[in-house]
Amino acid sequence: MKKRFGLVIDQERCIGCEACSVACMQENNSCAPLIRVKTENVDQQDTPEGRFPDLKMSFLPLLCNHCSHPPCVDVCPPGALAKREDGPVILDKEVCDGCEICIEACPFDAILYNPEKEKAEKCNLCVHRIDRGLEPFCVICCEGQAIHFGDLSDPDSEVSQILTKKEAILLENPEGVEPSVYYCPPRAPRGL
Amino acid sequence: MEKEQVKTIRTVCPAHCGIDACGILAHVRENRVVKVEPAEFPNPKDRRICLRGLSSLDITYHPDRLKYPMKRTGDRGEGRFERISWDEALDTIAERFKDIAAKYGWPSIGWTLGGPGAGTTKFGAYLRLASLTGSTRVSAWGYGDAGLPCGSRVLFGAQFPYSFLMGSFLAGRADPEMVVVWGSNPAESQPLNMMRRIMDAKEKGALLVVIDPRYTVTAAKADQYLGVKPGTDTALALGIMHVIFQKGLQDVEFIKRHSVGPYLVRTDTGEFIRAKDLGAGDSEDYVVWDRVSNTPRPRGAAEAKPEITGAFTVNGLECKPAFQLLMDLAEIYPPQRASEITGVPAQIIARLGERIGTAGSVTFVTHMGFTRTYHGDISLRALGTVAAVTGNVDAVFRGGHLPAVLNWRPFLHADSSRPSYSRLGILQLYDAIISSKPYPVKALWFSFINFLNQCADSSKIINEIFPKLEFIVAAELFMTPTARYADILLPVCTYLEFSDLIPFSYPYVQLQQKVIEPLYESRSDVKIAAGLAERLGFSEYFDGGEEGLIDLILDSGHPSLEGITRENLEHGPMTLYQVPGTDQEIDIPFSTPSKKIEIYSEALREVGQALPVYLEPIETPLRPAGKKYPLAFIQGHSRFRTHSMFANVSSLLAMNPEPLVEINPQDAAQRNISDDVMVTVFNDRGKTTLKARVTEGVRPGVVNISQGWWIDQFEEGSVNHLTHAIINPVQEAIYEPNMHMNDVAVEVLGIP
Fold first, then answer.
1. ipTM tops the 0.85 cut
2. Chain A residues with CB-CB distance to B under 8 A?
3. Which phi and psi angles does B100 have, rounded to 5°?
């Protein structure tokens, strides 16, 4: 069966530390992190919602969802974006002309514009690593061990196994794009 | 082709001094580190890195690194220096030290070093010099880290309580029914490597409780968060114990077997009854009340079935078992009273007491934060006592007990024929410099410590301490606020540029292997110390450089190091101690006077602290009405820094650009303060000006500025312009006085 590499992000284990963001910038030499961590439901980073002491705070790492039918690929005039057979949506920076049309098309706001290089930048699922049998760099640097990588088509893979055991959702997405990044929502506090 | 030139070397990022130290795999191309990644560990759960470790290259290749030795040309603090050679620098230092020692004696020269966890030989090299010259070792514990060992020494007879309170986690198990994180934030700060264990335990069903005045990232993971008032943890613990005792949920067998609970205490003097008080012989042994014979018996007496409650008369002496005295104390802290003191709702305290009392096993995760209050040592004892009376102390060896951290003997006793070093805590150093008590200190050497930035009462340091010093040396990476006051400034290496032995993260020992040659003219601390030793006539004690000193420790015969050599450490981490089979159950003899957990400390009876009594914090305002400074100021630790390290790293500054004072919306509204406006935080000692962050994440009545920002990063002042250097004499007597960074009162005003 055809491979479909993707991620399962366990928000229960995400501690919002942003090591993934720093790791990403180091690995990809990008102008900004291609994975960034948003504190949910508030504008301010690391800030809880509610009233003291009845508070709530959870983190949402956001990145390219490596859609099965990626709108960005369809709209890219020079054809710099491509969907690989095994799942990753990749950007060829040599071909990119910096038109920014893909940035508009992405339903997840996951493509950046590098003003210095005048080109788009996005998560390539670290294809340079996964082609050597390694995991994406953010996965091995995740402090909470919250980001899991693997083949979503293989029922025995770690990611598929997690999906059978835990509730998982997709980010809100336009019909038909079929994202490959699943999120396990944080568990509600049980109280004493 | 290019790829083939990259080699990898396993080393260690020791940035987080103490029980965390991540293994690092450094990728090197032509003496340049091109990448760092988390190195493999025998247990994949221990393979980790954090955003600070990932910034290693930003530190090593930082444009502001000090590049060569310098001498001061302007006024102290002004930051004007000129380049000199290493020979000139070391010759000057040796000469000045000899002059000062001739005038005031060698103890007048103090080695002021950062945390020992940050490296073994770089710390040890200076201790060796202190010991050989008979000068002063300034202990780093007092910078906020002495409260925890003070409490732990009294209760457990050990410097650290970790193996007793979270032994299961340290042994790699994650099986408690309940985890209580008390006064620490392992998601961002120490004990960082416990966070995965906590989440693993939670995933397996453990209930997670977090106790903290701030709603931290760790608190965000809690099933129940308790937003306690700073400095009131002991009252909370007593409230919890009140409920446990009222419901009879204490672990009687554990208390009898492992604590002083059954030992009889005279109610008139507070001393333990001794066997000699029974009228026969002169034995100093402790005495219990045997319920079978209804008579007092020495503790070791066969067949004795000791009572842990009740009141008895022994040879005309009124007495009670120590546990009864603890019950009497907890009796006066019903949840309602504990609630009034701590700010935690009474029903939550009651429910927590019940849950801790009925849970099969509870792991307590804690660290220094809540012990940085005036009576923080008692807070730690109170927490440990809750664990002890419910049988949740690892008092039986099940693979979780840890040996002492590597000892410093090989360094501190370099030559037994010479007078040894003197020792001062940081707060004692203040007195030594300002008023020559107990003796004058006239010169300081700073290494891996940003003294001015990180120690209490900055104005005192600038106005009363530095001017009294005849000579200051700083070995540093950067022109820190402290370095600006140095007379001689020496450039040091980052961890990628020298070798060291790192006895962390538990239970591992790792080799920090030199990855690249030192940049510029920088030198390792060992090499710097060796250069000075040569000029003072002690060169033979530094033979072999860093490797020589590493071997000195490994060959010291310490039992925890059996079988560990430099050669096999080059391949990866080794376990620091030989784990007896986890099925082996051996009672741990505690290193207290009684060899038991001292829930009652006879030694502290004269200061009224034999039991973990609740005493109000010295400054934190608990009844704010009418107070000049109604807000409690605390300093949380941020994931973006380790103390003041990483504060100048641009990739981290991009995420977290400036210091902020966190204030609750209620307090902000009363002062007409809104988000992002500039405010001044002040008290009688000083003030600091910075941006406000209005957030529910901090308890009303409390303001937080995360520590570690450099003085020059504030609009004005800094966190330690607000703190005080008041010595707690009880801590001084037990071990060393602590700085009470989280026991400070302030007011906050908007700037018109």
1. yes
2. 12-13, 15-19, 21-23, 25-27, 44, 46-53, 55-58, 137, 140-141, 143-145, 189-192
3. -65, -40
